[in-house]
Every structure is written in C-alpha cells, then in structure tokens.
Amino acid sequence: MRARVLALFIALLLGSGGAFAQHEKGDTWEVDGINYEVTSTAPQEVMVVSKYPKYEGKIIIPEKVEKDGKEYAVTEIDNDAFDRCESLVSVTIPSSIRKIRDGKDVSRRFHDEKHGAFSECSSLVEVFVNAGYIGSSRALSYTVIGDTVNTSARLCSHAKTGEILVSQMTHDKLGSRFEYAELEPAKVKGKEKPLAVFNVLRRAPAVQVPR
C-alpha cells in the first residue's frame, strides 16, 4: 500500500512539470537576452541586472516578464546593469521602471559611486525614456529619466547666454534645416569620450527655385 502511495506521489510530482518552481528574492535568470534579479515576491517584481557577455546592440526592456508560469513587473535597473557595455547602441526604458539604482545603494553586493547604470557605454547613442511617477507609495515625483535626460542637462550646463547646444545625434536628425557652429568637444560626466557639441545659430535660408 505504501509503495503504491509513494509511486502515485512521484507520478504527480513529475507530471506537474514546473508547477512547483518557486523563485525567491535574489534569484537571477535571463529571459530574451536580458538578465533579471527578483527584488520582491509579493508583489512579484524584478530588476534588470548586468550579465556576461555584456549587453550589445539595441535593448528593449519590457514592462513585464514571465518565468516558470509567473509574471513579474520590471520595476528597477541596477546600478551597474549596463556599465562598460561598449557595444550597446540603444536602450528603451518602459514606464514600469520606478528606479535606476546608483553606486550609493549599499544594499547591492557590488557598488561603485564612480559608475552608474550607463557608465562608459561608448557606443550608446539613444535611450528612449518615458515620463511617469518615480518613487514609492510614500513619496512620488513625476519626472523623466535616462541618458538622454542626463546628456541634455550636461549640455545645458555648458551653454552660455543665448546659445542653443545640441549633440551629434540631434544635429544629424535636424539636418540642413539650421545653421550650426561646431564647438570644442565637451568632457561630460558619464561619457568616456568627449561629446561633440554644436551651437544652433539660425534657420537655414530657404532655397529659391527659379521659375
């Protein structure tokens, strides 16, 4: 009798597949090329963390990710998630992200105040960000985050009275619609190489087509 009960229990356990899989806080796994760490099991939330080989190309972070039949909200980016990813070109950050950790977050096992989530990403040209509420249930602020925002702040701090400074990417997208003056490359925080800077002078004159 006991043998039959044991055999039945084993059969049920094997037949359930991954139904008994449980993830705890701190567990890490990779889904669709992005590495995640469980930060909370109730509610079920994860954070984007670093991986090896490092991220490259275009990365699109989803709002939610599924693992072993369970759905987790992607709510944070770790302080070194994309650090030194030299072949990373662009990152899309969803509105579900509430926090990008920095080197002062001592709860992390590895932290360095000199580096941030996107430090020394020499090929990074685009970070698509979303405006939204950032913080916790106790303190919320409506803001925008990401490398694009940081670069804009750096350019603003370099601009003199009357100047409109733009990066190489903005310059290329605006094209010949404006006239520019190329300035000395600026060394800015968070960028390994000096940033190409252009001062927007005026609208380009309209081309007159002879009749």
Please explain how this structure is put together.
It is a single chain. This protein has 211 residues and is of the alpha/beta class. It folds into two domains: 23-145, Leucine-rich repeat, LRR (right-handed beta-alpha superhelix), CATH 3.80.10; 146-205, no CATH class. Helix content is 16%, strand content 32%. It contains three helices and 14 strands. Strands 1, 2, 3, 5, 6 and 8 form a six-stranded mixed β-sheet that branches. The chain has a three-stranded parallel β-sheet with strand order 4-7-9, with no helix packed on it. The protein has a three-stranded antiparallel β-sheet with strand order 12-14-13. The longest helix is centred in the N-terminal third of the chain and has 14 residues, at 2-15. The radius of gyration is 24 Å and the shape is elongated. The termini are far apart. The model is unreliable at 16-20 (pLDDT under 50).
Compact description:
This protein has two domains: 23-145, Ribonuclease Inhibitor (Leucine-rich repeat, LRR (right-handed beta-alpha superhelix), Alpha-Beta Horseshoe), CATH 3.80.10.10; 146-205, no CATH class.
Radius of gyration from CA coordinates:
24 Å
Number of helices: 3
> What is the count of β-strands?
14
CATH superfamily assignment of the largest domain? Ribonuclease Inhibitor
Count of discrete structural domains? 2
Tell me what the CATH architecture of the largest domain is.
Alpha-Beta Horseshoe
Q: Biggest sheet: strands, sense, closure?
A: 6 strands, mixed
Give the termini separation. 102 Å
Strand content: 25-35%
In CATH, the topology of the largest domain is named Leucine-rich repeat, LRR (right-handed beta-alpha superhelix)
Shape: elongated
Query: Helix and strand string, N-terminal first?
Result: HEEEEEEEEEEEHEHEE
Mean pLDDT metric: 79
| CATH class categorisation of the largest domain | Alpha Beta
Assembly type of the shown chains? single chain
Regions with little confidence, pLDDT below 50 for 5+ residues? 16-20
**Helix/strand/pairing class, anyone?**
alpha/beta
Helix content: 10-25%
